[in-house]
């Protein structure tokens, strides 16, 4: 694995020049926390590095909330997204499996993927509900993203993951290979510290596979209990980096608008005759858990829950899925 | 600019004829602007301009590529609009999608088909396909049930099949009218009349969920093995591409992994009959 470095001042200067040829998004702190923003020159010094995690997930860059999927459009400038936490990078691999399917390639998704350079950011520190490692995801990217960025003592260090990442790094005139091993040691110490925080914060949380087994055999009472606080708002699915369900809406001229949908909304599975498997709230509620921890893992290689914890933060009913899992793991196995 | 194949964009098809099959069921005859082929049992997404699209398995022969017939029961928003359509307009077609009937697997066997209501639409397409390979089959038995005699679609089909070598067709109704002198009762009652060698046969079930459920239970009682029973499942198949998530049934996307499954594949999945 190769590391390259550049003084922060030079990095910022070159980023400003790159705004002419790239559309750049990065994680920026605001009064509510931090989120991805479209970067203008004056935003560059305020880009947030190595702090978990943007409020919204990466998926909206690739799956817009609403888009016309029958009209043609031009590709536009190449996009660079800076500061993606590794949980979101890993979440994207499930989207790739679904949308870059050999048989039915979604050209809108694949164009956006080809047109985007992903720069991940190592998480140094955690947020209250972060639990990526419980599901086998590291808090730093060693694959999936083109580059990973670390801001260390006013030096930007780039971990090169892909040839596209290397090409992008080489655009920066002041870039140098990191030869001082102590710098890499320092990064690794920070990575270990984050891993330790995640472990301590998620003691007794069942791993991904165990969670799948727990939800599969869970009785209806637990779904009824936790869904009492659910108002079917769909915030959990909207914020989730791996929830990708959508609806096709017909417009005159045989145009089709693809709009993000959610299994938590009433009527999601209703068929024309009125039958609806997910009519009852607790069934809809359970459906999301079964999908993420039991069904999708049986169907896809990628993880369908990245442990980002955003669904817990977003829930207006204050439903904490990890409390549900801990409760399930304490129940005796019949 | 986008030049590659757009999976969301329908192909235009001219509606040339509308055939009234029963008070609630019509068959739409369509000429697609491009040649359109499908395997029997696969489905298409058929759209009404500006209204919506819905999944249907064509009821016509898979051997005919220049014309397509789709039989539609008036049961919801899109189908209600479809029933108002007159010949001459364009409709949109996406597909074909999914896994159809593995006709080659039926070679050398007796094929028992249980159909109910509008489930006869995909079955008619299958029957055309089976007629095309009848030399390779031992026999084909169709058992079909409708609510009333008036609800029975494709009435001439039964006479024609009964005159075709190796084919037998039986009908029953849930409720008879004055003119009906045939069998009365649910479709499984017809199974007492037929002669079939279970070990050398496959069974196909297509119809409303309740009929599929009791049909399958009866077939299992008769001695059919799970893998000998083929079910044509119905869910809210919205995109047809295994992406939108609406038709997820356990680990399966019905649109892509189905809609035809063996009972063996589905028996571990909860709520399959809902």
Query: Could you name the ranges of chain A where pLDDT drops below 50 across 5 or more consecutive residues?
Result: none
Q: What is the average of the pLDDT values of chain B? A: 93
Form type of chain A: globular
Biggest interface between chains: A-B, 42 and 45 residues
Largest sheet data of chain B: 7 strands, mixed
CATH topology of the largest domain in chain B: Rossmann fold
Topology:
The complex is a heterodimer of chains A (about 325) and B (about 270).
Chain A (H helix, E strand, L loop, with lengths): L1 E6 H11 L3 E9 L2 E6 L27 E3 L9 E7 L1 H14 L7 H8 L1 E6 L25 E6 L2 E6 L2 H7 L6 E2 L3 H21 L6 H10 L2 H8 L7 H5 L6 E6 L3 E6 L20 H19 L10 H5 L6 H10 L4
Parallel strand pairs in A: 2-5, 5-6, 6-7
Antiparallel strand pairs in A: 1-8, 1-9, 2-3, 4-11, 7-8, 10-11
Helix pairs in contact in A: 6-9, 7-9
Chain B lengths: L10 E12 L2 E8 L10 E6 L3 E5 L11 E6 L3 H6 L7 E8 L12 E7 L3 H13 L6 E8 L8 H8 L4 E7 L9 E2 L16 E6 L2 H14 L6 E4 L15 E2 L2 E2 H4 L2 E3 H4 L8
Parallel strand pairs in B: 7-8, 7-11, 8-9, 9-10, 11-12
Antiparallel strand pairs in B: 1-2, 1-6, 2-5, 3-4, 3-6, 12-15, 13-14
What does this 3D model show about the protein?
The complex is a heterodimer of chains A (334) and B (274). Chain A contains eleven helices and eleven strands. With 334 residues, chain A is an alpha/beta fold. Chain A has two domains: 2-201, no CATH class; 208-330, no CATH class. In chain A, the strands form two sheets. An eight-stranded mixed β-sheet of chain A has the order 3-2-5-6-7-8-1-9. In chain A, strand 2 (22-30) and strand 3 form a beta hairpin. Chain A is globular, with a radius of gyration of 21 Å. Chain B has 274 residues and is of the alpha/beta class. Chain B has two domains: 11-97, Beta Barrel (Elongation Factor Tu (Ef-tu), domain 3); 103-232, Rossmann fold (3-Layer(aba) Sandwich), CATH 3.40.50. Helices cover 18% and strands 31% of the residues of chain B. In chain B, a hairpin with a 2-residue loop joins strand 1 (11-22) and strand 2. Chain B is globular, with a radius of gyration of 18 Å. The termini of chain B are far apart. The model of chain B has no long low-confidence stretch (mean pLDDT 93).
């Amino acid at each position: 694995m190769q590391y390259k470095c550049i003084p922060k001042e030079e990095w910022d200067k070159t980023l400003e020049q790159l705004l002419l040829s790239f559309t750049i998004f990065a994680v920026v702190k605001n009064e509510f926390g931090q989120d991805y923003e479209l970067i203008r020159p004056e935003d560059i010094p305020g880009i947030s590095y190595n702090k978990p995690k943007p409020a919204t997930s990466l998926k909206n860059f690739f799956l817009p909330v609403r888009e016309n999927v029958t009209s043609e459009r031009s590709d536009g400038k190449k996009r660079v997204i800076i500061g993606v936490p590794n949980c979101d990078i890993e979440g994207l691999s499930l989207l790739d499996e679904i949308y870059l399917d050999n048989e039915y390639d979604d050209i809108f998704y694949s164009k956006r993927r080809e047109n985007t350079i992903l720069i991940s950011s190592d998480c140094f520190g955690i947020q209250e509900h972060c639990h990526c490692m419980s599901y086998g995801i590291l808090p730093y990217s060693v694959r999936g993203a083109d580059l990973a960025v670390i801001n260390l003592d006013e030096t930007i260090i780039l971990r090169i993951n892909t040839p596209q990442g290397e090409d992008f790094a080489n655009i920066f005139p002041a870039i140098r290979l990191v030869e001082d091993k102590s710098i890499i040691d320092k990064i690794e110490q920070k990575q270990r510290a984050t891993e330790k925080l995640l472990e301590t914060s998620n003691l007794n949380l069942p791993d991904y596979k165990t969670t799948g087994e727990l939800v599969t055999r869970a009785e209806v009472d637990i779904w009824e209990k936790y869904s009492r606080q659910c108002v079917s708002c769909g915030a959990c699915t909207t914020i989730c980096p791996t929830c990708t369900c959508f609806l096709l809406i017909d417009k005159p001229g045989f145009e089709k608008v693809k709009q993000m949908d959610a299994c938590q909304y009433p009527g999601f599975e209703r068929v024309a005759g009125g039958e609806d498997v997910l009519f009852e709230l607790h069934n809809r509620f359970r459906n999301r858990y079964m999908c993420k921890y039991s069904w999708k893992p049986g169907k896809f290689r990628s993880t369908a829950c990245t442990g980002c914890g955003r669904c817990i933060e977003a829930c207006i009913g204050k439903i904490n899925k990890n409390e549900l899992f801990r409760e399930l793991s304490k129940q005796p196995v019949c | 600019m986008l030049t590659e194949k757009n999976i969301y964009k329908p192909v235009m098809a001219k509606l040339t004829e509308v055939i009234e099959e029963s008070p609630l069921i019509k068959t739409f005859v369509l000429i697609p602007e491009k040649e359109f082929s499908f395997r029997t049992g696969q489905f298409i997404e058929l759209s009404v301009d500006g209204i919506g699209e819905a999944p249907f398995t064509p009821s016509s022969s898979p051997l005919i590529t220049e014309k397509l017939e789709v039989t539609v029961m008036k049961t919801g928003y899109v189908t209600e609009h479809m029933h108002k359509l007159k010949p001459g307009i364009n409709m949109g077609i996406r597909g074909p999608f999914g896994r159809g009937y593995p006709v080659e697997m039926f070679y050398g066997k007796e094929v028992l088909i249980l159909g109910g209501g509008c489930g006869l639409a995909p079955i008619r397409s299958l029957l055309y396909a089976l007629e095309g390979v009848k030399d390779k089959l031992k026999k084909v038995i169709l058992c079909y049930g409708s609510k009333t005699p008036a609800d029975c679609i494709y009435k001439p089909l039964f006479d024609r099949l009964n005159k075709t070598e190796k084919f037998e067709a039986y009908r029953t109704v849930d409720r008879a009218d004055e003119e009906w002198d045939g069998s009365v009762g649910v479709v499984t009652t017809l199974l007492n009349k037929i002669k079939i060698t279970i070990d050398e046969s496959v069974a196909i079930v297509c119809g409303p969920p309740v009929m599929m459920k009791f049909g399958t239970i009866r077939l299992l009682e008769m001695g059919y093995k799970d893998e000998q029973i083929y079910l044509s499942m119905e869910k809210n198949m919205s995109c047809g591409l295994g992406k939108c998530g609406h038709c997820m049934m356990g680990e399966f996307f019905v649109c892509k992994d189905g809609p035809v499954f063996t009972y063996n594949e589905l028996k571990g999945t909860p709520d399959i009959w809902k």
